[in-house]
Amino acid sequence: MEAGPRDRERDTEQGDQSTPGVPEEAVRLSPDGPDPLDMSAVAPEVEVELRPQRRLRIWQLAPIVILAAVGSLMFAFPLAFEFGDGGPVVAMLGLLISCCAAGWGLMAARRVGYTLPGLPAKGSGERPDWRVAGLYTVTACALVALAVWRVARLR
């Protein structure tokens, strides 16, 4: 039968240091931790991040994806099939909803810490390269111009 904690204390006070099955290091330890002389043998502590990694969750992505899908369908169907006089209005409304979903997605990604390729991370202190920012601006303007031109051709 194994001895309880009270019996062990009494045995160690009597000078019985040879406890079977217990390593010598455990016998040398004091009840409140290792001796200060033995601290050099202890490995350094490693800090671990306890907060979860920042990323977009499904409940954040679902409304953005649904809004983008509805907007793109509203934009595409009046252009593909003749809807009469209301076609351009529905197409422009779909384009507006799609652009809102894209902006919402960009803001959600920016809040989590993602950036567009070529642009610095939020809070890094770096300035964006003007060529990359200009390329994004020209691309966005070209897409808007093509969409408006396509809707204007419906009339």
UniProtKB/TrEMBL annotation:
Basic and acidic residues bias: start-end ranges: 1-13
Keywords from the named record: Membrane, Transmembrane, Transmembrane helix
Domain of life: Bacteria
Region listing for Disordered, in residue ranges: 1-38
Record carries keyword Membrane: yes
Ranges that cross the membrane: 61-81, 87-109, 130-152
Entry protein name: Transmembrane protein
Source species of the chain: Streptomyces beijiangensis
